[in-house]
Amino acid sequence: MKSVVGSRKYEIGSQKKLLRPRSSDLRFQSSDLSFMTTDKQYDDIIKSCKEIFLKKASDYGTAWRVLRTISIVDQIFIKAQRIRTIQETGKQKINDDISAEFRGIINYAVIGLLQLDLTENDPEEMPVNRISPMYDEKVDIAKKLMQDKNHDYGEAWRNMSQESFVDLILMKLQRIRQILINEGKTIMSEGIDANYLDIVNYAVFALILRSEVGSLKSEV
User: Fold this and answer.
1) In angstroms, rounded to a whole number, what is the distance separating the alpha carbons of residues 191 and 86?
2) How far apart (Å, rounded) are the C-alpha atoms in residues 82 and 93?
3) What's the sign of the alpha-carbon dihedral 93, 96, 101, 102?
C-alpha cells in the first residue's frame, strides 16, 4: 500500500483513489507562510460575521425573534447539509460559497444563544445598538471556550479536515434535537447552549483553515 500525503493519493490493491487535499495537507507544504495568532484570526472572522449580522438587522429588523429553537436548528442544518453535499459531489449550482455558509452558521448559532436568554416579555423588534453588545457577549463566551480547549488540546483542530467540522456541526444539531425531545432535560450531558457554542467554534475553525489554504494557493 502506497500513500503520498501531498497529493492525497492512495493505492490499495488495484484500486486508486484521488482525494481533494485537506487544509492541513496544504498548510504544511509552506514553511514561509506567517500565520496570524489564533486569537487574531478568530476576532477577524467574528468581526466579519457581526458586520453581516448587524447589516441584516438594519435591513430586516430582529425578525429572527420569532424563531423557536427547532427552527434555528433547522436553519443551521440546511447550511451544514449544503456544505456537506458540495464536499461530497464537488459541484454547486448556487453562487453562495462555502465560507458564506459557515458565516451563516455562526450567526444562526449566536441567534440561538440569544433566544435562549430572551423571553416573551422582551420585544420582538430591538434596535441595533441593543443587539450589538448582546452579540459580543455570546461570541466572547465562545472565544473563551476556544481558548480553554486550545490550552488543553494544543490546537488539534488545525489538523482536522473540513469534512470533520461539518460532520461535528451536524452531530451537535442532532444532540440539540434530542434535548428538545427530552423537554430540555439531560442526565449528564451539556445543555443546548453548550452545543451552540461548539457550533460557533467549529465554523470559525473551518473558516480559519480555509483562509490559510487560500493564502497558500495565492503564493503558488
Assistant:
1) 30
2) 11
3) positive
